Amino acid sequence: MARERHVVFRRYLDAVGLHGLAGAEAAGLHATEWYALSLLDLEGALTSGELSARTGLTTGATTRLIDRLERAGYVRRAADPADRRKVVVEPVPDALADIEAIVGPARGRIAEVIGRYSPAEQEVLFDYFARAAPAYREASEEIRAATRGR
Fold it and tell me: Among 33, 13, 15, which residue's Cα sits nearest to residue 24?
């Protein structure tokens, strides 16, 4: 039973990962660019340092990532209103509509799946999502920390 659950969960995670890769490819982006764009969509404007910390990229790699996203029209650089010496990266709303067109059909399918659950079951699902996301981010940081300097 435990092995079956493990396999089911792994297949779920693989499908989510595959969907992210397919979305990135459809948008002409690398997986890290796709993730950075999702961060900006969810969080709003971030400094390049914040984006670097959240993606796990070096500052140089983050600058190149921002350059690519800016050239593609997905983000723009703006002065930080709190500190004019800093630059923030903000998503371009019209460009995000293109992303929504790519992922919209899958979001609709997932909404149908979730809609099959009772409100109480949905509460459990969303409690899991809320708790699992930070756990996966922490696990990702642990992996990065363990592999730095190799």
Answer: 33
Name the pTM for this structure.
0.84
Would you call 91 helix, strand, or coil by DSSP?
strand
CA gap 21, 34 in Å, rounded: 8
Q: What is the DSSP string of 25-67?
A: HHTT--HHHHHHHHHHHHH--EEHHHHHHHHT--HHHHHHHHH
Residue 37 burial (C-beta neighbours within 10 Å; 0-12, 13-18, 19+): buried
Q: For 31-84, what is each residue's pLDDT tens digit?
A: 999 999 999 999 999 999 999 999 989 999 999 999 999 999 999 999 888 888
Q: Which CATH number fits domain 2-116: 3.40.50.2000, 1.10.530.10, 3.30.2130.30, 1.10.10.10?
A: 1.10.10.10
